[in-house]
């Protein structure tokens, strides 16, 4: 798994574990939602400044985005579509 895929994997894992939608994370990090989606799908190469805004919005250390998933780890599940509980 390359670094871009690892960042996307961990971003989705952390975001969904905190039950934060892409839209809410985008608002909190002052970025477009499509950027969050692109990062999680390894199609967008985020800048260090953008990573800083994302980790601030998530309340985590940047090192958590670089954790190597276990070989047996399943991809993080997306949140269910529709309105999210507050």
Task: Please describe the topology of this protein.
Blueprint: H1 3-17, H2 22-29, H3 33-40, H4 48-58
Task: Describe the model.
By secondary structure, the chain is mainly α. Helix content is 49%, strand content 0%. Helix 2 packs across helix 3 (33-40) and helix 2 crosses helix 4 (48-58). It has helices at 3-17, 22-29, 33-40, 48-58. The chain contains four helices and no strands. It starts with a helix and ends in a 28-residue tail after the last helix.
Helix content: 40-55%
Number of strands: 0
Instruction: Output the radius of gyration.
Output: 12 Å
Beta-strand fraction estimate: under 5%
> What is the terminal separation in angstroms?
34 Å
Stretches where pLDDT is under 50 for at least 5 consecutive residues are none
Would you kindly provide a brief summary of this structure?
By secondary structure, the protein is mostly helical. The chain has helices spanning 3-17, 22-29, 33-40, 48-58.
What are the key terms here?
86 residues; 4 helices; mainly alpha
């Amino acid at each position: 798994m390359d670094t871009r895929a690892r960042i996307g994997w961990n971003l989705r894992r952390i975001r969904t574990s905190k039950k934060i939608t892409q839209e809410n994370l985008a608002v909190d990090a002052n970025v477009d939602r499509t950027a969050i989606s692109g990062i999680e799908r390894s199609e967008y190469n985020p800048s260090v400044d953008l990573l800083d805004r994302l980790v601030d919005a998530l309340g985590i250390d940047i090192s958590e985005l670089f954790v190597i998933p276990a070989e047996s780890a399943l991809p993080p599940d997306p949140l269910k579509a529709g309105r999210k509980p507050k």
